[in-house]
Design brief:
Involved in beta-(1-->2)glucan export. Transmembrane domains (TMD) form a pore in the inner membrane and the ATP-binding domain (NBD) is responsible for energy generation. This is ATP-binding cassette domain-containing protein. The structure is a single chain. The chain is of the alpha/beta class and 336 residues long. The chain folds into 2 domains: 5-47; 70-171 and 216-334, Rossmann fold. 42% of the residues lie in helices and 18% in strands. Strands 6-7-8-3-9-10 form a 6-stranded mixed beta sheet, with helices on both faces. It has a 4-stranded antiparallel beta sheet with strand order 2-1-4-5, with helices on one face. Strand 9 (293-298) and strand 10 form a beta hairpin. 33% of the residues are buried.
């Protein structure tokens, strides 16, 4: 009976067994979206005593954290004749640009002008079909994005890219990662070298949070930051890599007038530290107030590059934005 009839009897439950496993899997996915280990870590973080907010005195001041050794060459970005094609579409055509050391340089243009293609190319995400670019006299044309960042070009993105479940402080510390030189062995054994570098990383991040005005939010999960503040940890994270040039891709998007004023002050302070800034932005008033020089793209080509006051009256720029060179009144109203 056991060998013959019992197996036959139990076969009728095999179909229901699959339904039970499926229902259990769905239940786990809905009840524990982080998984078992992730949920345990979340509960541990939630119910442990709250960490005190770091004090500014615990951090390394931004002036010290961002200081670089002086070089014999001027720290400038030079791009010559960059051409980028996607199949039969030419997104960038022989575009050239020079950002002098320590200046704020704006890159503007109508939608679809090629600004994103340009910045993605010089930061290593796209490859140029023609032309070359370099920073501080070092050719970066064929280097990967990680190498370019290590050599001094750091950037933010149009869409805010934060690690939502990490604290604001941890998000900034992530930008320091490429400066860490310890290996797996050091991490496993928590060697003095590893602990020393981790402490330096934390002190730098605290100093940068103080610099961007987010120190009171240091222990908050980044996803809970108000929208108007979400750009700041991204800028601080980019600064943590100790860049020579900081590329800001539409940092004022979605900000209020007061927040834009605060952003303007922050960018000025960054430039005062000797860091060059390449600013891609649609807020013309911000550009006219901040930029030392402005380069204008249209249909993938540079149509003008000059001081803001000269750009404002350039008929080619007015035509690119308004479709006719006679729209000077509209341009003046818009601040172009």
């Amino acid at each position: 009976y056991i060998l013959t009839y019992l197996p036959e009897y139990l076969q009728q439950f095999q179909l229901w067994q699959k339904f039970a496993y499926g229902a259990l899997l769905l239940l786990v996915m809905f009840a524990l979206p982080r998984g078992i280990v992730g949920t345990l870590a979340y509960l541990f973080k939630r119910f442990r005593p709250a960490e005190p907010v770091p004090d500014a005195s615990e951090g390394l001041p931004a002036e010290a954290a961002l200081r670089r050794e002086k070089t014999t060459q001027s720290s400038e970005l030079v791009a010559n004749g960059l051409t980028v094609r996607f199949g039969g579409l030419t997104a960038l055509s022989k575009a050239s640009l020079r950002v002098k050391g320590g200046e704020i340089h704006a890159l503007i243009g109508p939608n679809g002008a090629g600004k994103s293609t340009f910045v993605n190319t010089i930061s290593g995400f796209y490859r140029a079909n023609e032309g070359e670019f370099g920073l501080d006299g070092i050719d970066l044309t064929d280097r990967r994005s990680l190498e370019i960042a290590r050599l001094g070009l750091s950037r933010t993105f149009q869409n805010t890219e934060l690690f939502g479940e990490l604290s604001v402080l941890e998000n900034v510390m992530a930008g320091y990662d490429q400066r860490l030189v310890y290996g797996v062995f050091d991490a496993l054994l928590r060697t003095p070298r590893m602990r020393r570098q981790e402490l330096e990383c934390r002190k730098t991040a605290i100093g940068l949070l103080a610099f961007v005005g987010l120190l009171p939010y240091a222990n908050e999960e980044a996803r809970f930051l108000p929208f108007g503040l979400q750009r700041r940890p991204e800028i601080a994270r980019a600064l943590a890599s100790k860049p020579k040039l900081l590329l800001l891709d539409e940092p004022a998007a979605g900000l209020t007038t007061q927040e834009i004023d605060e952003l303007e002050e922050m960018v000025r302070r960054i430039a005062e530290l000797g860091i060059s800034v390449l600013l891609i932005e649609h807020h013309v008033d911000l550009i006219m107030a901040l930029a030392d020089n402005v380069t204008v793209l249209d249909y993938g080509q540079v149509i003008a590059s000059d001081r803001p006051s000269a750009i404002q009256d350039d008929p080619r720029v007015i035509e690119a934005y308004f479709g006719t060179s006679t729209s000077h009144g509209k341009a003046a109203e818009a601040g172009v």
